Amino acid sequence: MLIKRREPRTLAGEPPDELLSARKRRRWPRLRLSAIPRPVLIAAALVVIALVVLAVPAIGTVLTLKAGTDDLKAGARQLEGQGLSLTVKDTGAADADFVRAEQQFAKAESGLRTDPAFRLLSTFPFGKRQVAATIALDRSAVHVGRAGREGVTVANGLIAQKVLGPEHPKSNPGQEALTLLAAVSPRLDPVESL
What we know:
- Helices cover 72% and strands 0% of the residues.
- It has 194 residues and is mostly helical.
- Helix 2 runs antiparallel to helix 3 and helix 3 packs antiparallel against helix 5 (125-160).
- The chain starts with 16 loop residues before the first helix and ends with a helix.
């Protein structure tokens, strides 16, 4: 006893009426703004505006931290890249980078302490620890910038004594290292005091 199943009718590849009605039932209802109560819309708009007002200064502070970090790296690359052939032009560019980095980090610390977003974040225990750690890292970066400036002062003194620079006398590497250490040792006290 086999029952033959009846296939739905289709004309020219069109889906049967049963499938069309099932598709219509599965569609999601469209969200209409007129269906949302006006007070809910106003409250949502106020929340979005408040988030934007909080986020803009916070983003500015984060970008300032990044700019300070980039300036520190640029100054260090300027000093490291030339090696013993360092010139006054190179040290001047590095010093400018370190000064800019110190200014950026001072501005960022001010933002970390006064921006409303970071103040709000500091009300939570986890957020307070994060903001405090960021401020501590920021202060450390200021000290690194100052140490970089002292390093520039040391390098300029060595260039003036002809220990560094393109015109310094070429000798064996061991003798150059000893001369460099002898010239640098008395100048490291200001760097160590930071």
